[in-house]
Amino acid sequence: MKLSVVGIGPGGADYILPLAARVLAEADTVIGYKYYLQFVQHLLRPGCTVVGNAMMEEEERARLAVEACAVGRHVVVVSSGDAGIYAMAALVYEHVSQFGERGLEIELQTIPGISAFIAAGAKLGAVLGHDFCCVSLSDLMTPWRSIERRLEAAAEGDFVTSLYNPRSQKRTWQIERARELFLRHRRSDTPVALVRQITRPEERIILTTLATMNPADIDMFTVVVIGNAETFRYRDFLVTPRGFSSRKPVTGPGIQQESFRLITEKLTRVDLSFADRSVVVRCIHTTADFEYENLYQALGDPLPHWHDYLVGGGTIVTDVTMVQSGVSKEFIRRFGIQVHCCLNEPDAIALAEAEGITRAQAGMRLAMTRYPEAIFAVGNAPTALNEISDGLQRGDFSPAGVVAAPVGFVNVVESKLRLQHLCASVPSVIIHGNKGGSGVAAAILNAACAWEPEAELIENALLAR
User: Fold this and answer.
1) What residue numbers bound the domain in which 427 lies?
2) Do residues 113 and 7 make contact, with C-beta atoms less than 8 angstroms apart?
3) Of 239, 263, 294, which marks where a domain is finished?
4) Is 406 in the same domain as 263?
5) How far is it, in rounded angstroms, from Cα 377 to Cα 444?
6) Higher-confidence residue: 352 or 462?
7) pLDDT tens for each residue of 94-132
8) Do 156 and 106 reside in the same domain of the chain?
9) What is the pLDDT of residues 143-174, one digit of tens each?
10) CB 298 within 8 A of CB 279
11) What is the pTM of this model?
């Protein structure tokens, strides 16, 4: 005794696989939904017993198929599309498994077919070019909470998604809910295809978007195909790139730009200007720590001022050599920037010993007299930042700016808060809290060198539309 579950494709005669046609021609008994049997009637041999029943009688079909099995007879259960995708194979195998010894005597096989979403994908051109999934919106046998969880995962995971059983006369709200869930994660102009009666004479394809798709155009014979973030429309086709045009970058500049893009996507502060955001991105890129978005404070719109100053061959003073080393050599060479650190100079060492202060503090005191109009960047020592605050309080010098990013646990927070109240007229960047460091201070300086006024003007124009 033999029992086959055969997928007959989406309906068009050309879409029935030769293997399926051969198995159907061998059948003694064929069981299926009576609507689907019309598509295979011409393939059956004379004398074949045909049993057709209603749409909702899947379990009855499985029971009848097992009961019809007898020695020397071949029973075939037909399913539209593929026999294993939202079809009869699972029910038949489950039913056979419950028949004990008799079930073991039945020779089982599943014959694949072309599923509706595959046929729809072909009609649409190349929409299934990257990762995809299928979700049925029918909650007759699956709790809606499970369906909704799967929809949420598909939308968030950016899968091209084909929705089966999207709408019926009684189930009208599920497709609207599915759209709501996808709009949480996809743009409103994401391409959508409504593919009805695929490969059959009544075939109709509507290309639309998540925002404009009309539920009235959808019924139980429709497969809804939702594109991913990269899917685009070309003529009457939908194309989902395989990723070759967006491979992971391998060059240094490419990796940096992709990193900046990924970081920018995750920023949440709405009060950051284009310039300030570029500084925050570089700080996060240096540390892999998104807390810098909230620790960042800019006073006096520093980046445009610093950029103009540095591209004209400005001067930078740092508290430690690690900040000095972190300033891009390309920017130094291109703009003729001078970067000084007096930490290890004999005069600084002598002053530190004579005054009982740190060398970073002594070096900063010397630099304030030598380069009073420089940008002063502190990435290590709070004593150096306090020295700058002392000078500002006395009015000893007028720096082009201050980068306040010392790191540590003793007097770090206080040194930054003190500077904050002294920098009303000095363009400054402060990294609040205990965090900071030489790399962060250098990243802020590099952001000033890299800032592009033209890019900010373009972004502001786009936002003004």
Assistant:
1) 252-456
2) yes
3) 239
4) yes
5) 9
6) 352
7) 999 988 777 789 999 999 999 999 999 999 999 999 999
8) no
9) 999 999 999 999 999 999 999 999 998 899 99
10) yes
11) 0.61
CA neighbours closer than 13 Å in the CB half-sphere of residue 432: 11
Identity of residue 9: G
Residue 100 pLDDT: 79
For the ranges 253-267, 278-292, 437-451, the lowest mean pLDDT is seen at 253-267
Do both 57 and 125 map to the same domain?
no
Contact between residue 92 and residue 5 where contact means Cβ atoms under 8 Å apart:
yes
Distances in whole angstroms, Cα of residue 13 to Cα of each of 9, 50, 114, 164 = 8, 19, 12, 22
Does one domain contain both 369 and 263? yes
Q: Give me the number of domains the chain comprises.
A: 3
pLDDT at residue number 248? 67
Domain shared by 72 and 169, yes or no: no
Which residue, 184, 206, 239, sits at the end of a domain? Answer: 239
- DSSP E strands: which ranges in 222-331? 222-226, 232-234, 237-239, 296-299, 315-318
State the pairing for strand pair 428-431/296-299. Answer: antiparallel
Instruction: Count the Cβ atoms, other than its own, within 10 Å of residue 55.
Output: 10
Question: Encoding tokens for residue 329?
Answer: 């050599």
Query: Distance between CA 461 and CA 159 in Å, rounded?
Result: 33
Q: Looking at the structure, tell me whether residues 70 and 159 fall in a common domain.
A: no
Whether 275 and 346 map to the same domain: the answer is: yes
Our measurement of the distance from residue 349's CA atom to the centroid of its chain's CA atoms, rounded to an integer in Å, reads 53
Q: Return the residue matching tokens 């499985």.
A: 62
What does the alpha-carbon distance between residue 366 and residue 364 come to, in Å, rounded to a whole number?
5
Give the contacts of 412 (CB within 8 A, at least 6 positions apart): 382, 406, 433, 434, 436
Instruction: Note whether 379 and 439 are within 8 A (CB).
Output: yes
Q: Are residues 282 and 224 in the same domain?
A: no
Q: In whole numbers, what is the pLDDT of the chain averaged over residues?
A: 93
Whether residue 246 lies inside any domain: the answer is: no
Which residues are catalytically annotated?
285
Q: Quick one: which of 59, 29, 58, 61 has its CA closest to 45?
A: 29
- State the CB neighbour count (10 A cutoff) for residue 163: 26
Looking up tokens 């959508």 gives 192
The secondary structure of 159-188 as a DSSP string is: -EEEEES---SS--SHHHHHHHHHHTTS-T
* Spatial contact of 431 and 292, defined as CB atoms under 8 Å apart: yes
How confident is the model over 312-330, as pLDDT tens digits?
999 999 999 999 999 999 9
